[in-house]
Specification:
The chain is mainly alpha-helical and 135 residues long. The protein has one domain. The chain contains six helices and no strands. Helix 2 packs across helix 3, helix 3 packs antiparallel against helix 5 and helix 5 runs antiparallel to helix 6.
């Protein structure tokens, strides 16, 4: 994955991790995350944080299902080779990156969306490549 493509969130210039996370002691429940956003922003940010997390979560679920279908359809010499083919390795790296972040997009929504778009394009490319093999 191209690490140079990642850009810090626009808030990174003026906000430090501790500015938000200090209020999240005892866990990161959705309600606490939303309250933290509203402490500095207006009430619309509460709904926005929820919408961001829902979008990223939904797209991640669909992406994982697509990858599972592609892996199941591949026929090759080994399971390792199946996962490497047609960009699946990059897609899996994107999934791992977003899962490791655990914010479901709140830390850097634009970058999370960019990564998901890249992965979704890789899935489409792999599906086209796979379908051409059977034509």
């Amino acid at each position: 994955m191209d690490k140079k493509a990642s850009q810090p969130d626009v808030m990174a210039d003026g906000v430090k991790c501790v500015d938000c996370h200090a209020t999240l002691y005892g866990g990161h429940s959705p309600a606490k995350v939303k309250r933290t956003c509203v402490e500095c922003h207006d009430a619309s940010y509460e709904k926005m944080a929820e919408e961001w997390q829902m979008e990223i979560s939904d797209r991640m679920k669909r992406l994982k299902l697509s990858v599972g279908r592609l892996v199941a359809q591949k026929r090759g010499p080994s399971e390792a080779e199946k996962k490497k083919s047609d960009g699946l390795k990059e897609i899996e790296e994107i999934i791992k990156t977003l899962e490791r972040d655990r914010s479901k997009g709140v830390h850097n929504f634009l970058f999370a969306r960019e990564l998901l778009l890249r992965a979704e394009e890789q899935v489409l490319s792999a599906e086209r490549s796979f379908s051409k093999r059977w034509d």
